Amino acid sequence: MFDQNPIFIPGPTNVPDRLRRVMDMQTRDHRSPAFGAMLPELFDGVRKVFNTKDAAIITFPASGTGGWEAAVSNTLSPGDTVLIARYGMFSHRWIDLCQRHGLNVEIIECAWGSGAPADLFAERLKADKGHEIKAVLVTHNETATGVRSDIGAVRRGMDSADHPAMLMVDCVSSLASMPFDFDGWGVDVAITGSQKGFMLFTGMCIVAVSQKALEHRKTAKLPRTFFSFDDMLAANGAGGYPYTPPIQLMFGLQESLKMLFEEGLENVYARHFRLAEGVRRAVDAWGLRLCAESADLYSDTVSAIYVPKGFDSNALTQHAYDAYDISFGVGLGEMNGRAFRIGHLGALTDVTMLSGLATIEMAMADLDYPIELGSGVAAAQQFYRTTAGASLAKA
Ligand code: PLP
């Protein structure tokens, strides 16, 4: 009605007024010297968020899916083998993309709700004496199940197998919300999008590429035109773009980085933990269960929550939308009908989060869920009020 209700889906996320104002701009000439001049600082800022000193930062006018395609098509050849585990809708979609690109995809099937199986990856890599596996693909934060995987453990497993495969990581729903350590984890390609932790509109994927992965592009034979790293690096190096850039998003990214650095990345991560923990306390108070199998897997950007047996999670999210004009995430894939998701990433504070918890609680009460009205909100309030601190004041 007033066009101001927050959304609680795990991306696209709420776009703060400050970023909306910046992106509401007259268009600029991308062939002007001013455009080229903004790129180095922009990419330096992005490097800080990925936690990398010298990875190339490459953007395309595309959503995260385009980033997957760019990662694969610039570094691999038809028939190459890649190793990937399926534990949710997004790892599933990346598998599908690889298969459609003619790659030989070795899949480790895992329960939805579990995370990247570092030990199974290591075992498989150890057995691959001929180094047929060219890349290990990992979804850092599985948005369908609310599971964050341990990328450091995957890297340690790869190192223990002394295997040269590239490590590609989808951090679409984790970057700029949860810690990411591109250099420390030895990541070769990491992919994200503008519309999650960066709090921007959808339409730009952002890819970080290691020097090792850049080398692979010289021999990689999968076709690429729109997503060519070569074309993009050459054009950016000359202060331009190989085609029309998403200029408003680039200015938005510049401002988003300012916001993140003003708050401080550590505080950004702490805020996301607090938001998430409040939600988890509420889930517990409702007597419901998260899809994530164990606490070490809990995501700080999204919680996927099973509804009690006999209830339909789609009816719940639909009712919240119809009755209260608030969006929550539906259950995806295997979780459809069985779970709903609360997105808690991006431009959110404790107070906004409480409004989301109050809303879904009302929706559950309306549909006769066996919960006590106010119990989840009270649990979250209790957590928020006893842990409010510096990070919140700056948010
Ligand atoms: N990977 C993850 C983990 C995601 O959450 C998403 C989208 O939600 C994607 C990839 C695909 O990104 P997009 O929808 O921007 O193409």
Automatic annotation (TrEMBL):
<dbReference type="GO" id="GO:0004760">
    <property type="term" value="F:L-serine-pyruvate transaminase activity"/>
</dbReference>
<protein>
    <submittedName>
        <fullName>Serine--glyoxylate transaminase</fullName>
        <ecNumber>2.6.1.45</ecNumber>
    </submittedName>
</protein>
<keyword id="KW-0032">Aminotransferase</keyword>
<feature type="binding site">
    <location>
        <position position="341"/>
    </location>
    <ligand>
        <name>substrate</name>
    </ligand>
</feature>
<dbReference type="Pfam" id="PF00266">
    <property type="entry name" value="Aminotran_5"/>
</dbReference>
<dbReference type="InterPro" id="IPR015422">
    <property type="entry name" value="PyrdxlP-dep_Trfase_small"/>
</dbReference>
<keyword id="KW-0808">Transferase</keyword>
<keyword id="KW-0663">Pyridoxal phosphate</keyword>
<dbReference type="InterPro" id="IPR015421">
    <property type="entry name" value="PyrdxlP-dep_Trfase_major"/>
</dbReference>
<feature type="domain" description="Aminotransferase class V">
    <location>
        <begin position="44"/>
        <end position="291"/>
    </location>
</feature>
<dbReference type="InterPro" id="IPR054863">
    <property type="entry name" value="AspGlyoxATase"/>
</dbReference>
<dbReference type="GO" id="GO:0008453">
    <property type="term" value="F:alanine-glyoxylate transaminase activity"/>
</dbReference>
<feature type="modified residue" description="N6-(pyridoxal phosphate)lysine">
    <location>
        <position position="196"/>
    </location>
</feature>
<dbReference type="GO" id="GO:0019265">
    <property type="term" value="P:glycine biosynthetic process, by transamination of glyoxylate"/>
</dbReference>
<dbReference type="InterPro" id="IPR024169">
    <property type="entry name" value="SP_NH2Trfase/AEP_transaminase"/>
</dbReference>
<dbReference type="InterPro" id="IPR015424">
    <property type="entry name" value="PyrdxlP-dep_Trfase"/>
</dbReference>
<comment type="similarity">
    <text>Belongs to the class-V pyridoxal-phosphate-dependent aminotransferase family.</text>
</comment>
<dbReference type="InterPro" id="IPR000192">
    <property type="entry name" value="Aminotrans_V_dom"/>
</dbReference>
<dbReference type="GO" id="GO:0050281">
    <property type="term" value="F:L-serine-glyoxylate transaminase activity"/>
</dbReference>
